[in-house]
Amino acid sequence: MVQYSKVANTKKTEDSILLTIQLFKINTLFLIICTSILVFIPPFIFELLFGKDFTNISISLKYIAIGTVMTGSASILNHYFSGIGKFQYNVYATLLGLLITIIGCIYFIPLYGVKGAGITMSVANTILCLYLFIIFKQKNNISWKMFREAKMW
Question: Percent helix, strand and coil across the chain, each rounded to 5?
Fold first, then answer.
């Protein structure tokens, strides 16, 4: 929410773009670290904490890990577009993700069960994030060099 209000109230577009790039990089790195830790927690820990019904959760976590990171990363881009009043890109991304989710659920859940649901979620959220990232990059003429050189701190 801080990003949304800063982007909405910033007069210089460059400052909003730089803030978004920085938050995108920080958020993505943080999510990769946290999700990696979660994925590598041994199943018996989940069983100790939550009971024997959660023993197999570590398997599911492996399939949703990428989607989780992409969801969080996409939220930064989502806040940027909301802050500049370009809500349509968020709507298009959500519809794209929904379409992929529906198709994936129809085909992958019957074949692979929970794994299929996790894969579907990860694919849908990755494509949603990539769509928002591409639009963000194109609409603001951001080069890869600018993206790489933007400081995280």
Answer: 85, 0, 15
Say if residues 63 and 108 touch (Cβ distance below 8 Å).
Answer: no
Nearest CA among 76, 62, 93 for reference residue 152 = 76
CA distance 1 to 143: 26
Distance CA 94, CA 84 (A): 18
Tens digit of each residue's pLDDT (9 = 90 or more) over 65-117: 999 999 999 999 999 999 999 999 999 999 999 999 999 999 999 999 999 99
Q: Which residues, other chains included, contact 70 with Cβ-Cβ below 8 Å and sequence gap of 6+?
A: 122, 125, 126, 128, 129
First-last CA distance in the chain? 19
Query: How far from 135 is each of 87, 97, 127, 141, CA to CA, in Å?
Result: 12, 15, 12, 10
In sequence order, the 6+-apart residues with CB closer than 8 A to the CB of 77 are 20, 24, 129, 132, 133, 135, 136
How many other β-carbons are positioned within 10 Å of the β-carbon of residue 130?
15
pLDDT value, residue 96: 97
Among candidate residues 105, 118, 129, the one with its CA nearest the CA of residue 64: 118
